[in-house]
Amino acid sequence: MSRLHVRAGRLADLGALEAIEVACFTPDQQSTRRALRLSLSSPCQSVLVAVYPDGEKNRVIGAAIVHKHLRRMRLYSIGVLPSFQGRNAGGLLMDRVMECASSSGPPEIILECDESNRNLVEWYERLGFRVFRLLPNYYGTDRHALRMSQKFSICPAKRLVTMPPENLLDRVIRGAPECR
Ligand SMILES: CC(C)(COP(=O)(O)OP(=O)(O)OC[C@H]1O[C@@H](n2cnc3c(N)ncnc32)[C@H](O)[C@@H]1OP(=O)(O)O)[C@@H](O)C(=O)NCCC(=O)NCCS
């Protein structure tokens, strides 16, 4: 594909996923290679990657990891390489995460967000998320988090439109056993 797009992550993306972790998160918040490998293979998690066409090659420049629970999905992490931020890769990743929740469920997404990062909180609010809880000291002493949520109505008709059959995420989300 010759434009910025989102697809399901695969094992071959492991190196790129590690690079995104290092570039986007502090060491205490980075997922290890082992954890990333588990995310890619677990039926209870989904990894989405944003791919940027770079000459002849496609380059993985962003990723979102989602944990699927019985009644809701949890956005575990989202990151875009700093030099590619502000080009809507994050927006595309979030669109796809929300599309999955609205088309095949579970119909609620929750996430945790650094309370002091106002740009990020406002970005999630613009995407439709609402704060419903303060989590004191979630990231360490005096580093509080906000838990945010967005609920969706399941729309079976939309499923046909929004989820192309070849999309691997579709298989993971619908074919996976529910995880508690
Ligand atoms: C949060 C994050 C994933 C957003 O990704 P992104 O690709 O920049 O997202 P978008 O391009 O869709 O833009 C998001 C918004 O932030 C603004 N923005 C973010 N980074 C920007 C940058 N480097 N330059 C200019 N604008 C920027 C955009 O203008 C946009 O605002 P808008 O929707 O009103 O236009 C990315 O900033 C990131 O990786 N941050 C570090 C990791 C992190 O904090 N993750 C979230 C917690 S897990």
Kindly describe this structure.
- There is one protein chain.
- This protein has 180 residues and is of the alpha+beta class.
- It has a domain at 5-88 and 164-175: Gcn5-related N-acetyltransferase (GNAT) (Aminopeptidase, 3-Layer(aba) Sandwich), CATH 3.40.630.30.
- The chain has six helices and seven strands; from the N terminus they run βααβββαβαββαα.
- The protein has helices spanning 14-24, 33-41, 89-104, 118-126, 156-162, 168-175, and strands spanning 5-8, 45-54, 57-68, 73-80, 108-114, 130-135, 145-151.
- Strands 1-2-3-4-5-7-6 form a seven-stranded mixed sheet, with helices on both faces.
- The chain binds coenzyme A.
- Coenzyme A (COA) is lined by residues 24, 77-80, 85-91, 120, 123, 126.
- The site of coenzyme A (COA) has 15 residues, from β4, α3 and α4.
